[in-house]
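User: I'm writing a short report section on ligand binding and want a predicted complex to refer to. Could you take this sequence and iron/sulfur cluster and write out the structure as tokens? A short remark afterwards would be nice.
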Amino acid sequence: MLAELRGINEECGVFGIWGSEEASQYTYYGLHALQHRGQEGAGIVSTNGNGLQVIKGEGLVNDVFSNLKLDDLGGHAAIGQVRYSTESGRGIENVQPLVFRSTTGSLAVAMNGNIVNAAELREHLERQGSIFQTASDTEVLAHLIKRSSGSLTQRDRVKKALSMLKGAFAFVILTEDSLMIAQDPNGIRPLSLGKVGDAWVVASETCAFDIIGAECVRSVEPGELLIVNRDGLHAERFAPTADSAMCSMEYVYFARPDSDIEGINIHMARKRCGKQLAREIGDIEADVVTGVPDSSISAAIGFSEESGIPYELGLIKSRYVGRTFIQPSQSLREQGVKMKLSPVHQVVNGKRVVMVDDSIVRGTTSKRIVKMLKEAGATEVHVVIASPPLVSPCFYGVDISTDSELIATGRTVEEVRELINADTLTFLSPEGMLDAIGRPDTMKNCGQCLACFTGEYPTEIYADTVLPHEKEIGK
Ligand code: AMP
Ligand code: SF4
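Assistant: Sure. The structure tokens for the complex follow:
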């Protein structure tokens, strides 16, 4: 029964704009900049105040939209999403934004995150007669909005619906007369507010502002609902702020180096993580430092600067292959690593190499790279990881899966080192990571979610919570 109630993975990037006649073009460029957050589907919904127009499809932003198609998306406001999904969450019906049409007005919704009480809410809504078209958590919000009391204003219905959700969610909602933006009470997924000319924009990452020449105004606050309409921007709360818990993995891996999250630049944070790691290791005898492209380069530069060991281009990544995780099966993932990375023999041959990676999830990448570097002639490979060991699953929309798949769960660092065949293996300490990101180094109230490193979750986790990657349709 529960399986039938399951949704799908919601890991992705969102964008929204209100107040520009080129709203859908801006959204297209914004989604381009957010492409690293999901490559399996993209969609844009726009409005000119009279109905909602929608274009969406599977694949990359470029594949889904052409100039011709964008011309069909007129209007002064738009929202968009790029999505990542596991095999089970594929299919055009799950590509967002989802559009709901009714006689009382249409609604389009896109989300980044994962609602941990979605199964419970779905069951409740179905008992009341709701019929779901998709397996997405996003649809739950739409039904909650539509089902709440008709005597409430639209704003109050949205607030009431949002207050029933638990978990991590960054929403963009478009109606014919407003753009609404909401951030969960812990502020787990990043969401920033900006301005381009007179238009308000919102995006998962600030790199989407740079590409359209928008200025970042501020982060959307935890528990905040922003409403943009003809009268301008109006901020209110749908929930009191809980302990702030921004996802640490955004700093470690997800976000683009040129983005800022809560005012902290990602490249600089990663570089400081690398420096901190070098300080924690102390003396290390090696000839070159190399980073696993692209997400580890910043940390590798920091490690090199602090340790005094020269940074070198020891690994090259093919530009034309997506991220390893995008291929969902383990065998395909392994093949992906092979297709993606090549060693630079002249750099590593006969050298003691420090290989910096941002994280170890299943261990596939590190194991393969150690082997690759040794085959290319490296005499020693010291693996240094710019984050602590990942030991617990993520319930908030990131594909960090079950404990059994995480190589560090239930193993000592020495056991993991043996499995990946490294000469030495060192992880960054959680305190060191917080300090390097720029948070207080107390683990409590640090403003960061650390659940996948510590197993301590910032929200309730329901007995029937379904991991995002396990969510399947009709299984
Ligand atoms: P693995 O090979 O399973 O150990 O994965 C580690 C690699 O995946 C690292 O090089 C990271 O850059 C990257 N990575 C870390 N977390 C994630 C994630 N949640 N989704 C996709 N890739 C990730
Ligand atoms: Fe991010 Fe980890 Fe928290 Fe998930 S559990 S939101 S990946 S820090």
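A remark for your report: Confidence is low (pLDDT under 50) at residues 1-10. The CA atoms of residues 64 and 429 lie 42 Å apart.
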